[in-house]
């Protein structure tokens, strides 16, 4: 039974990723962008253009092009990126850790601020803490994230000098930290370089706070909705009638019953930060995954785009599997 479930789950994941790649491939072929021109330039003669087009395999039928891509993918070959000239796998290994570092700190900030804010709003329903939390959530969710980024740079970098500005680390420390994990904070700690760690942290905090505030708005709204549903249940009324302190009713009873729902929301929010941080990365000059994917799309570099899409799909699958595993920890019914 367990083997059958594992086989069906693996087949479903493979079919999902295959469909995602096929859809991306077909969309890329109908986009009004010519990757051949990105290689040869607009002034190349017709013979050169046709030769490069044949070398890239774009003269073949779409079915053969896609089959060739899958054959190379089975060997672990994601192709070569037009943007950098490097293997796509090498580029992704270079840019993904920067976004993981940014998104991880952002989701931690969003969770630490957003979840208690949602609980506070629900436990003070229709009173001033609830109204305040809703206004904060509305502003954080509706205000463009790039505007927050520009205002943050203006105030905390240009005026106050607290933030580190654009990029991942100060120019004086570029290339001085040995690249072991790709995560600058971790690499600086492993190297014992306190000055580089401080510089990397100053550069990371502001974009992470911008993304974290955006996540906080979403998480607080969802937490509030989940808590309101639980606080209206009979078991909460019973706990209050028994004379339990309000904090114990809210956190010890109601909040425990929304943890599984929050896991799903957190997994989706984290995945969204990993693949959707492009605006913040652009404003802060952050050399991450979102910037790489956007540049590849604008260039019509389908090898890089499809490799990036595959990584996004794998990330969401991994996050969902991780959330399912945590369900069994927090919910005994899932273990049954």
From TrEMBL:
Domain of life: Bacteria
Keyword terms: Cell membrane, Membrane, Transmembrane, Transmembrane helix, Transport
Coarse class of the protein's main subcellular location: membrane
Annotated coiled-coil segments of the chain: none
Any single Pfam family the record assigns to this protein: BPD_transp_1_N
GO cellular component annotations of the record: plasma membrane
Location within or outside the cell: Cell membrane
Domain ABC transmembrane type-1: 96-327
InterPro entries: BPD_transp_1_N (IPR045621), MetI-like (IPR000515), MetI-like_sf (IPR035906)
Entry's transmembrane regions: 12-31, 102-123, 135-160, 200-219, 262-284, 304-327
Topology class, membrane: Multi-pass membrane protein
A GO MF term: dipeptide transmembrane transporter activity
Family stated for the protein in its record: Belongs to the binding-protein-dependent transport system permease family.
Protein name per the record: ABC transporter permease
């Amino acid at each position: 039974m367990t083997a059958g479930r594992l086989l069906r789950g693996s087949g479903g994941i493979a079919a999902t990723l295959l469909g995602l790649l096929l859809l991306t491939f077909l969309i890329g072929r109908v986009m009004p962008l010519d990757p051949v021109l990105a290689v040869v330039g607009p002034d190349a003669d017709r013979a050169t253009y046709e030769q490069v087009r044949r070398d890239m395999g774009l003269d073949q039928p779409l079915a053969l092009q896609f089959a060739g891509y899958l054959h190379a993918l089975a060997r672990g070959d994601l192709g070569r990126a037009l943007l950098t000239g490097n293997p796509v796998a090498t580029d992704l290994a270079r840019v993904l850790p920067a976004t993981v570092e940014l998104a991880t700190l952002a989701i931690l900030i969003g969770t630490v601020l957003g979840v208690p804010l949602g609980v506070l709003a629900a436990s003070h329903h229709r009173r001033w803490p609830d109204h305040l939390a809703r206004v904060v959530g509305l502003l954080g969710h509706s205000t463009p994230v790039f505007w927050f980024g520009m205002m943050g740079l203006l105030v905390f970098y240009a005026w106050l000098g607290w933030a580190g500005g654009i990029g991942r680390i100060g120019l004086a420390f570029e290339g001085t930290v040995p690249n072991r994990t790709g995560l600058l904070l971790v690499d600086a700690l492993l190297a014992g370089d306190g000055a580089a760690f401080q510089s990397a942290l100053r550069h990371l905090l502001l974009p992470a706070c911008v993304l974290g505030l955006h996540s906080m708005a979403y998480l607080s709204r969802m937490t509030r909705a989940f808590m309101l549903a639980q606080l209206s249940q009979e078991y909460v009324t019973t706990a209050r009638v028994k004379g339990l302190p309000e904090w114990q009713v809210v956190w010890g009873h109601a909040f425990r019953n929304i943890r599984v729902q929050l896991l799903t929301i957190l997994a989706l929010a984290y995945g969204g930060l990993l693949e959707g941080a492009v605006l913040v990365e652009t404003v802060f000059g952050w050399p991450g995954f979102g910037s790489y994917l956007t540049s590849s799309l604008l260039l019509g570099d389908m090898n890089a785009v499809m490799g990036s899409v595959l990584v996004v799909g794998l990330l969401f699958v991994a996050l969902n599997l991780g959330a399912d595993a945590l369900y069994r920890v927090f919910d005994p019914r899932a273990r049954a």
